[in-house]
């Protein structure tokens, strides 16, 4: 049985999203664990917890985690680049990381960009404005789309159903955005959550 660990920066939205996806996919041959409340909400805290959890479970070839994913936001985190560097180091040969692979799953500026991609295709950069943080600005855009009018971090059944109905469109948009981001060097807005979603769907087919 393949073992997968997802550690998220967010305590609510991300956890509920991946738990809903786990339920939808019914990954009977995969041990999928999702954590979001066990660590502080910073990129390096997410990576640190993921490494500690993998270490506690033991080597991947002896029942430990095969795949470890760290889901965190660019936002205004001062330790964002450090977290990416820590993941690169953990993937190097002879590192102390006991999993098979550990992967960063960043969003620029935040996870809600992924949710927004289920409804709209946009490359207009997000920035803090009018007393709102950049994350709040993204959330305001998300609230323009039904059934997210009253979105407040937690996902309702209707929201989950709307997201799952539009997953293919979101993946297509995210891939298009990634190509443009690589071409222009502008990562805001973009996300790599679709790569994790696709990986989970691939596990369902095995």
UniProtKB/TrEMBL annotation:
InterPro entries for this protein: RloB
Protein name: RloB domain-containing protein
């Amino acid at each position: 049985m393949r073992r997968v660990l997802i550690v998220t920066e967010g305590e609510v939205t991300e956890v509920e999203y991946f738990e809903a996806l786990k339920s939808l996919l019914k990954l009977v041959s995969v041990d999928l664990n999702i954590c979001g409340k066990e660590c502080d909400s910073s990129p390096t805290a997410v990576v640190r917890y993921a490494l500690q959890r993998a270490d506690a479970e033991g080597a991947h070839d002896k029942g430990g985690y095969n795949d470890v994913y760290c889901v965190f936001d660019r936002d205004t985190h001062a330790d964002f680049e450090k977290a990416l560097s820590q993941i690169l180091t953990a993937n190097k040969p002879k590192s102390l990381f006991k999993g098979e692979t550990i992967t960063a799953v960043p969003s620029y500026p935040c996870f809600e960009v992924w949710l927004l991609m289920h409804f709209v295709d946009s490359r207009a950069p997000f920035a803090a404005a009018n007393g709102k943080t950049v994350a709040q600005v993204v959330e305001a855009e998300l609230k323009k789309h039904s059934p997210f009018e009253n979105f407040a971090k937690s996902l309702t059944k209707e929201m989950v159903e709307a997201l799952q109905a539009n997953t293919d469109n979101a993946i297509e948009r995210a891939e298009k955005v990634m190509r443009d981001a690589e071409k222009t060097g502008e990562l805001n807005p973009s996300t790599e959550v679709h790569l994790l979603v696709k990986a989970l769907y691939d596990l369902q087919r095995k």
